[in-house]
Amino acid sequence: MAFRNSLRVDTELAQRYEKKKRLWVAEFASDREAYTAAKGDFIKEALKNAF
Question: What is the spatial distance between Cα 7 and Cα 30, in angstroms, rounded to a whole number?
Answer without folding.
Answer: 27
